Amino acid sequence: MEKVKLDGYDPIVLTKATEKVVIDGNKRKYARLARPLRFYGG
Fold this sequence. Notes:
Blueprint: H1 11-22, E1 23-24, E2 27-28
Antiparallel strand pairs: 1-2
């Protein structure tokens, strides 16, 4: 993961940096949480 120097708060840059970590092509890191759950058991 590359370090991104943020001068202030830029939501677009922050979103792109987060997408690189969470989304790998069509595979999402947190895909199991997308289904309807009555509670989060984490």
